[in-house]
Amino acid sequence: MVPTHQPGLELRLGNGIEIREGRSRILLDPKVVEAGVPIFITHAHSDHVPRGLESFRGPVYATPPTARVLRARYGARRGALVEVEYGEEVRVGPLRITPLRAGHIVGSAMFLVEGEGSTLYTGDVNPRGGLLEGPAEPREADVLVIEATYGSPEFVFPDQARVRVELALWAAGVAAEGLLPAIEAYPVGKAQEVIAALNRFTELEVAVSRSVRAVTDALGEYAPLRYSDSVEGPAVLVTGRAVPGPRRIAAVATGWTLLGIPRGYDAGFPLSCHADFPGLMEIVERVSPELALTVYGRTRRLARAVSEMLGIEARPLGSRWVTR
Questions:
Q1: pLDDT digits 0-9 by tens, 33-44
Q2: Pair 253, 173 in one domain
């Protein structure tokens, strides 16, 4: 019988990041579940969670905080989820898969996949971490698969500690005028980071929307925060959508405000859970791969920068199997 592919660890961008060796195949952040194929989810943002998760029988590997949100927000079956701690190795045939801290949001993970060679997939990554999550802890690997969301040199974030303070001072100033500051933040991860900043730097009561509450409740063991559905006295609202209203002043917290404050908002704060361009380059240097493959975002620009500035072979990951 003629083998369908050569032995050794191979990967491609298809149904998420697909990795195989011999007869074993795994999916990292797939778009849709596949019966009988193990899934590894880096974190619980919707663009990293597969369709069909609510009926999938597993296994789905994720860190405990991510597993909590997968159940609360996406209806993942408890029996399908396998919780793995940072540094805890999982074996699938000849493959050894280890979650490492990614620094993106609470519980976010990179996955180091080892077999005949090694590949590190970052998922969304942040070498600085935040108030609720420590910085990324990458390891060296032969091949690096790295996200490229802010993978262009113009994306350099201001000091994030200063941005958190500025956001809190803005909210306190608006509330002092008898108005309600409403801060829009993605309900998974970013909203909790905003609440943490408000708890730390202000005395304001923090009200949250239903979507933010569901996630924050699920993460309570890992991110203890002060918040409520309704409050009395000076308060700030953290919500997935800051809709303008009477006596309400809206702001948005996202790294994309580097490009300007979107229409309909009174203020914007470049608070990001991602690495900026220098942060992505730092991750590449720390992993020191033979080959860097870029995914999701400004893939060509980041690959070119890695090749030209670091002297490491780099290109966007495509749909053809890659062997290294």
A1: 999 999 999 999
A2: yes
State the pLDDT at residue 5: 45
Beta strands 180-184 and 248-253, pairing class: parallel
- Mapped onto helix, strand or coil, the DSSP state of residue 169 is helix
Sign of the Cα torsion 43, 48, 52, 58 reads: negative
* Residue 215: count of CB within 10 angstroms of its CB: 24
pTM: 0.95
Give the amino acid at 77: R
Q: What is the pLDDT of residues 295-323, one digit of tens each?
A: 999 999 999 999 999 999 999 999 999 98
What domain range is 247 assigned to? 160-269
**Judgement on whether residues 48 and 142 belong to the same structural domain of the protein:** yes
Task: Report the CATH number at residue 90.
Answer: 3.60.15.10
Looking up tokens 């949001």 gives 105
- Give the dihedral sign, CA 4/6/10/12: negative
Q: Is residue 69 part of a domain?
A: yes
Residues 231 and 168: their CA atoms lie apart, in Å, by 18
Segment 167-188 shows an average pLDDT of 97
Q: How many domains would you assign to the chain? A: 2
Do 206 and 193 form a contact (C-beta atoms < 8 A)?
no
The tokens describing 284, both together, are 């590449």
217-212-156-300 Cα dihedral, nearest 10 degrees: 100
Rounded to an integer, what distance in angstroms lies between the CA atom of residue 138 and that of residue 148?
16
